[in-house]
Structures are given as C-alpha cells and as structure tokens.
Design goal:
400 residues, alpha+beta, 2 domains, five-stranded parallel β-sheet, Flavoprotein, HI0933 family, RsdA/BaiN/AoA(So)-like_dom, RsdA/BaiN/AoA(So)_Rossmann, FAD/NAD-bd_sf
Amino acid sequence: MKLAIIGGGAAGFFLAINAKEMCPELDVIIFEQHNNVLSKLKASGGGRCNCTNTFAQVTDLKQVYPRGAGLLKKLFKQFGPQDAYAWFEAHGVPLMVQPDQRVFPKAQTSQALIDCFVQTAQRLGVVLVLGKRIAHPKTLLRQNGGSFDFVAVTSGGTPHKDGCVPSLFTFALEDAALHELAGTTVPSARLSIPKTSFAATGALLITHKGLSGPAALTLSSYAARYLADCRYRSPLQINWVGEKNTELVRAQLKEVFASHAHKQIGNVHPFGLSTKLWGYLLKCAQEGTDSSASSKSRHPGLDLTKKRCGELSKKDSAHILQVLSTYPCQISSRVAYKEEFVTCGGIPLSSINNVTLESKETPGLFYAGEVLDIDGITGGFNFTAAWSCAYAVATALSKR
C-alpha cells in the first residue's frame, strides 16, 4: 500500500511519521514543491517554535479557533494537546511551558523539532521528494490512473487560493501621534471594531506602524473575513484598561484621584500604564473628544498633566475616562506578522468525514492541517490543530 503526502510542512511530516509507526509496511512519500521543508515551523515563535499550548486557560474552543472548533472538539478526544505534549517528549524533544501556557522546546529553538521530524522520518523510511509540485492530487490515486492507494493533502493555506484570506496579522493605523509611542506595551487592552461583535483582549504593543501583540493578532483572526471585505480599512476602538467597563473605570479613577489629590495628574499612573502613554492620553483628553490626532483645530488650555488630581473638573474626568475606554483610531492596512502566515478558509469541513478527514467526494483522498477551513489565534493553537488532524488521518489509514 502506498501513501502520497502533498506538502512537507508540520502536518505532512507528523502524518508521515505516525502513519509509518502505525503501519510499518505502508510506503510513504512526501512531495514538497519547494526545495526546503518545515519553513513555517522554523519561523514560529520567533524561531523557538510555539509547538502547542496546554489549553489550561481555554474554556471553550471557539475562544481560540474562530473556525473549526466543532471538528477539533471531536478530534481532540482522540489526540489532543496533552497527547501532542507526550508525543514530542517520547520522540526526544523535551518541552517547557511558559506562564501564558504556550509550549516550546526546552532547547528554545525550532531546530529541535525539525531535527526530530526529519530524522524520525528518515529512520522510518519515509521518502522525501523536493521541488515537485502536485497540481491535481486526486490524479495520483489508483482509481484515477495513478500509483497510490491513498493521497493526503497537507499543503497548508495560501491567500491566493479561492476563498482564503489572511489571518493573524497586525494593524497599520492612520495615527501619526500614536506611532511616536512605538515600543510601548500595555498589559491588557481591549480592541473592538465599532458596530460589529468583533473584539479581543490581551497584551498590546504599539509599533512604528500601528498595533501588534496578542490583542491585535487575536482580533485579526476573529475578524479575518470582515477585514478582508473592508480591504483592511476599518475604524477601531481601544480600551486601554482591558475588559473593565466604563463605570468600573470611572470608580477606580475617582478613587485614584482622591487618594492622590495633591499630586499632579501627570505623575499618577493608574492601571499600570506607562508614563509616556499616560501623558499622551492626558493630552488627548485635554483636546476633548477628538483623541485621534487628526488635523482638526486644537484648543490649548491649561496643561492637564500639570493639574493636581484634586483640581480636576467633571469635564476633565469625563474626557480622561473617554480616551481610556473608547480611544478611536483607523486601520489603514494589514501588516504581515514576522515570517508566520495563517489563512482563514480552505477545504470546507462539510466536504470531509469528520472522523477520518477523508473526502466525501473522492475516496482515498484525505486532508490535514491548514489546508482545511480551520485556523486558530496565536499561541500554539494552529500547530495543535495540525497534529490532531494528521493523527486522525494516520489512524484512519491504519484501519484500512
């Protein structure tokens, strides 16, 4: 029996290895159109490879998988995050868990995983063919005149395929003043797209172009199709203090100002905001409701940062509250996130068997990984889905 795997990425190698371990007599060949393999895995996590996640902070898979949560809930019962962790440890890759529950190789390099995959595949007799593009995978099947009993497509996602759009990207903003705060981090901020239900909370990084960090990446995943339809131009609202609602922020500000009545407000830093960001937000508050650094006229008055907390008027407090909880800005374009790339879209899940991941239309044709309409937010979730899908296909093949 022969298996052709189209794509030498994470899902392809994981499928090849598990298929050979379950069925040593199976001939497995990986076809990769480029001259190198596992490139996305190599770039993941800044070269450290965020290979999975403990899911300890996940209460609902829909939180981390905007698309495909239902299918993965079933697949995880057979091979989930804990199984992936155990698999890597058993195959000679010790892992470590970060406080945010992301999992990395203890070696702190993706090369540890690459070596594991390549060396294990070679030891098991998996054949690797580089520089070979397979445009029509189903033609490799015996029933279609080919020489393979099974074909598995693990070619990943690309926005150039029909129905696919980018996911996991950062935002460029039309906000020159905010760009001057590049390098500033916010422990917990909430990003939302007005007049939609799209929102995400997490750490935020201000860049020289706009916004990055977990909050921005998560929102880009949740709103991938919406933002593509908008051509990546959309209003955006920032709550600099995270999930706190307006009334809670108002009460906490009142308490802070009351306890520091004799201090200049510029020297008080509520909610863990940096001196630079707090000073900028106070300037925005002084300018009234226009906090987006636009070309509208300014009305300079007494420098708000010099006022003592006990001297603030109700109007001052209202404007401070407004810029803290509903800071408006405009997304002008998307920015690719480092060398990592994830897509929204792919093979419709309705077209495959939800246990074996075999095509309903073409027996013997399987799919695994990002080629399917499955994608997750940043944090090791996309690789976890790849491991689970690949294992499901290997298991299905072992029963043939």
